[in-house]
Amino acid sequence: MSSTPSDASPLFALADGNNFYVSCERVFEPKVRDVPVVVLSNNDGCIVSRSNEAKKLGIPMGAPFYRWRPLIVSKGVRVFSSNYPLYGEMSLRMMDTLFSLTPHMEVYSIDEAFLDVPVGPAEAEGWAEGVRRRVLRDVGIPLSLGVASTKTLCKVAGRSAKRDSRGVRILIGQEEIRSALEATGVEELWGIGRQLSKFLIGQGILNGEKLRECDDRWVRAHLGLAGLRTVMELRGIPCVQGEEAPMEGRSVSTSRSFADPLPDPSALREAVACFVATAASKLRENGAMASGLHLFLTTSPFRGDYRSQTAFCSLARPSSYTPTLIGAAWRLLESLNPENLSQVKKAGIILTDLVEESKTPPRLFGMNAALERERGLMEAVDRIQKRWGGQAIQTAAEGRSREWLTRQSRRSPRYTTDWNELPLVKAKG
DNA sequence: TCTGGGGTCCTAGGACCC
DNA sequence: TCTGGGGTCCTAGGACCC
């Protein structure tokens, strides 16, 4: 029995929003549609999204902004701070539209989803072009679609779709797969990162086709289980599972780098409280509770003596109640010694060992009444914040000054999530 | 001067037990 | 006095992803 699946295997499509953050900005600001554009990470630190024109100027993904600023200024590149409320909302719209076009899909990231292709190989191209047209019309985001029998091959197809004027690439026939893999360097494959590609290139394994031919045992020994999965997927055997599973056992975190040194220890306490409040609200949104909490403080990793401190605690019982979690985080903070870090550059919390709220065991005696009060309070807070914005109500622990707030000097308006920042339609003239 | 944030999964090694 | 080996669980850290 051959390990090569027939051309009739079920097909996946990877739908990927092109230069997603830049595309979101362009939906609401037509002036930047044909000029080079970049979007920066939090704190205006790194370049995390680039228009095609910006890519042509040689600006790399993830590059520190300050280092490229001279070129950006001289070439007139438009720069945006990141506007996550906008991107999150545009992502929801895109996913809703995609979901109406497939019987099943898995959201993989803010700008990517794997769709089950509901038609056979012969009609796949027409279907994919239809999906692309529909999202462009209804949401305004241009997509690339790569269609193949495994997710890893979809990624390969998706890369070549980005270079195709129709934005679609179907990768099905064995000959086509072979030549596509020959044209794909190992370092470009999904699942092969910097370390593994360095190793593989050292071994003379330069492209996807060469990797696909490697011996299974050798791959297992040198690239680990994940590497073996990648190789199987290149051969057309689906191995990468989607995670349908809800929050159980996962984690939620919030962290920030600080633009400037924190003015005093109370600012750090407030920042930590804010991180907890954000993560706890994400928890409740997903009907989950956390059983563990990590706190970490680090200095800048780009200075000489990088140092970090971490602390962990298990909670007496799973919780998503913001005050309880802030209390736990503050106790951890007291157990650390921030003075030992010359300067805290970044801090964050991670809520771990999540359990579904509905599966937590009932408490004894009067405890359930207390639990009900906590739940009612959090529901009210969540409703108010949803309606009136996150600033409308908060715990006192978070403080009002936000002195640690990150820098965002070039943020576009929150067109889709704030009544005061809706786009205005003006009559011409 | 200025370098993001949020995840998942795997592995190696130590502790502990029988 | 000599002194094995296998299993499990936990954790930290690394590698990967967008």
Coarse shape: globular
CATH superfamily membership of the largest domain, which one?
Reverse transcriptase/Diguanylate cyclase domain
- Element pattern in H and E: EHEEHHEHEEHEHEHHHHEHEEHEEH
What's the structural domain tally? 3
CATH fold group of the largest domain: Alpha-Beta Plaits
Q: How many H/I helical runs?
A: 13
CATH hierarchy, class of the largest domain: Alpha Beta
Average pLDDT reading: 92
Brief characterization of the structure:
The chain is an alpha+beta fold and 429 residues long. It is 39% helix and 17% strand. Strand 2 (37-40) and strand 3 form a beta hairpin.
Could you walk me through the main structural features you see in this protein, from its secondary elements to its overall organization?
By secondary structure, the protein is an alpha+beta fold. The chain has helices spanning 20-28, 52-56, 65-74, 84-99, 121-138, 151-162, 174-182, 194-202, 208-212, 216-234, 265-285, 322-335, 367-388; strands spanning 12-17, 37-40, 47-50, 78-80, 105-109, 112-116, 143-148, 168-170, 252-257, 288-298, 308-319, 346-352, 355-356. The protein has a 5-stranded mixed β-sheet. Strands 9, 10, 11, 12 and 13 form a 5-stranded antiparallel β-sheet that branches. A 3-stranded mixed β-sheet has the order 3-2-4. The protein folds into 3 domains: 1-183, Alpha-Beta Plaits (2-Layer Sandwich), CATH 3.30.70; 185-243, DNA polymerase, domain 1, CATH 1.10.150; 252-398, Dna Ligase, domain 1, CATH 3.30.1490. Helix 11 packs antiparallel against helix 12. The longest helix has 22 residues, at 367-388. It has 13 helices and 13 strands. Residues 1-6 have low confidence and may be disordered. 39% of the residues lie in helices and 17% in strands. The structure holds a DNA duplex (18 and 18 nucleotides).
